[in-house]
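Technical annex B. To support the medicinal chemistry partners, we prepared a structural model of the target in complex with protoporphyrin IX containing FE, based solely on the information shown next.
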Amino acid sequence: MADGFLGYKTSFMLDLVVCALVAVVPVLLYSIYIVKYKHRFALHKTLQLVLAAALVLTVLAFEVDLHLIQGGWENIVAKRDVPLTKEAFSFVRTLLTIHLIFAGSTPVLWGITIAYALKRFPSPPAPGDHSPLHKKLAWASTIDLTLTSVTGLIFYYFAFVA
Ligand code: HEM
């Protein structure tokens, strides 16, 4: 099975999803910056919808590849030149469990934030009654996505690089 493009014994889709998770954070911060300090509400909305669509498509393709083609993350780890010790394997499994807590809750929170925003903000978007709830949901989504990205990178490092 072909390896990834970052130079480690991974898979193409795994490397792509890692890059997407890293790329999404600065775009997200930019989207928050322009809404908070520049009041560019329509651009913020567009960026958020494009980000969400890009992430959904990448993660779906990654899940199909991981489970149907690679046969699970253990098979990718098994490609390492230097195999993981039993202790390292169990450490990596714990890191993955932590990552999956954030990776699982992010799409739910993200989806709720977007669904409410689309329903309750006017179009074109502008501050209104929904603003206080949107800010709470949106900051929670932002933190969740950032932690998904950080914990995913930590897992990738210990499973495939270290
Ligand atoms: C999960 C997706 C989204 C995230 C993470 C997000 C993030 C944020 C954040 C953090 C703020 C507040 C900035 C501050 O503290 O002042 C904000 C404000 C805002 N967002 Fe979003 N947003 C999302 C989706 C959307 C969508 C889809 C729309 C439009 C339909 C939208 C419209 C707005 C508006 C109008 C404000 C200004 C609220 C105000 O200042 O009163 N957002 N967003």
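Notes passed to the chemistry partners:
The pocket of protoporphyrin IX containing FE is lined by residues 32, 35-36, 41, 44-45, 48-49, 110, 113-114, 117-118, 121, 125-127, 131, 134-135, 138-139, 141-142 (CB under 6 Å).
Residues 86-120 form the longest helix (35 residues).
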